[in-house]
Amino acid sequence: MHAALESIEELGLRGTLTLVGLAKNEEEIFFAGDRESLKLPYDSQSLKLIRKIRDEVHRFGISFHRNKRSRGTFKNELEHIKGIGKQTADQLLKTFHSVKKVKGATEEALTGLVGASKTKLIREHFLKQDPETHTGQGFN
Hints:
Blueprint: H1 2-10, E1 20-22, E2 29-31, H2 45-79, H3 86-96, H4 99-104, H5 107-114, H6 116-129
Antiparallel strand pairs: 1-2
Helix pairs in contact: 2-3, 5-6
């Protein structure tokens, strides 16, 4: 709640919003600036609605960060290889599930998926990054 208040301050929105927090264990409701919590009956419709809102906010936040992390970290690294586009990067990630596994893939596995010329580009890219880890089979 403290971090949310700081953000509201930075955005110049103090006084225009009502910030409410819900403590997990006790299911107590806290309003920004108040020292006392509001305790609603555990089975009240109001508390059920507030719980659903909290759960949905958490679900959305977790999904957003997972998607952002997987798109931002993995795809960008593969797409930065000259000659490898978004479609090929997506295909590699769908098959190998991570950049680390793409690095560790055998030449045969990569060639079977994306062809010899793209395999050469991928292997050269990772070899330039870390020439000491090249084993002849993969890069890990």
